[in-house]
Design a protein that fits this description.
Blueprint lengths: L40 E5 L3 H7 L4 H10 L1 H11 L3 E8 L7 H25 L1 E6 L7 H12 L7 E9 L1 H14 L9 H5 L12 E4 L18 E4 L9 H12 L8
Parallel strand pairs: 1-2, 1-5, 2-4, 3-4, 5-6
Helix pairs in contact: 1-2, 2-4, 4-5
């Protein structure tokens, strides 16, 4: 996660095929006693921190802190369930429109979480990557994050993508710019060429996209990669979305039949 591209994610992961066209096999029906199919890649839009804070009579900072605390047990459960990739939407480029104080708190929470959790992440075998335009972050914030994340580079049990200063549309623009920078002709720019230049290059597309907090939209998150993802919406606010709620989403996923247009 320390390989900083001008307009890409840090530390491009390798070793997993990227499903550029979403042409994966559908989830098969289970025979009695057969284990539930587990998604290879789960993406989560972590929504509801501020509403959770209001419901508990707390300030926004406390709500965001509660949201950060909710990540650890979910990571542990993802490792237990054998999920290979987990992508969390932490801060969008649109979030810059929030108050300077709230933005500062979000930055500080990310830095603190990475710093405080690095040793545990290494023990769990979690490889952490940051997706987004890192060059737009303050220099000290970027340096602190990258230093902490480098320690997780060897993790092989779970790849954790933290989408921070992320925008799905900006990701597509950056992929197109990389095609141009790499000298591709117009005819050479196809789905595979773009997929190979996304922040998630080398990773499978999300099989399951979860949004907490009751809203039913994907809000510019992994808009290319989620083309064939199963969508799961829940009213549960993010700080309350624990391992049991995560298991319920996985159980719902296991009951669906994925056709991919067939």
């Amino acid at each position: 996660m320390t390989h900083l591209q001008p307009v890409a994610s840090a530390d491009v992961a390798s070793g997993l095929p990227h499903d550029a066209g979403g042409e994966r096999e559908p989830v098969a029906s289970m025979a009695p006693g057969e284990a539930e199919p587990i998604p290879r890649h789960v993406a989560i839009i972590m929504d509801g921190n501020r509403r959770w804070a209001r419901e508990h009579g707390l300030g926004e900072a406390e709500g965001h802190a509660a949201g950060v605390r909710a990540v650890r047990p979910l990571l542990h459960r993802a490792v237990e369930r054998g999920i290979g990739v987990l992508s969390l939407y932490a801060f969008s480029r649109e979030n810059w429109a929030r108050s300077p104080e709230e933005v500062r708190v979000l930055f500080e929470l990310l830095e603190a979480a990475i710093r405080d959790e690095t040793n545990e992440l290494v023990r769990e075998g979690v490889h952490v990557r940051l997706l987004g335009r890192l060059e737009e972050l303050p220099r000290e914030t970027r340096s602190s994050i990258l230093e902490g994340l480098d320690a997780t580079r060897q993790g092989e049990r779970l790849t954790l993508n933290v989408a921070f200063n992320y925008s799905g549309r900006s990701e597509l623009v950056d992929a197109a710019r990389r095609c141009i920078a790499d000298g591709l002709t117009a005819l050479e720019v196809d789905e595979t060429a773009l997929a190979e230049r996304l922040y998630t290059a080398g990773l499978p597309d999300p099989d399951l996209l979860i949004r907490t907090g009751g809203e039913m939209r994907i809000s510019n998150f992994l808009i290319w990669q989620a083309a064939y993802a199963e969508l799961y919406f829940t009213e549960t606010l993010w700080p309350d979305f624990g391992p049991a709620a995560f298991d319920a989403a996985l159980a719902e996923y296991a009951q669906r039949t994925r056709r991919f247009g067939r």
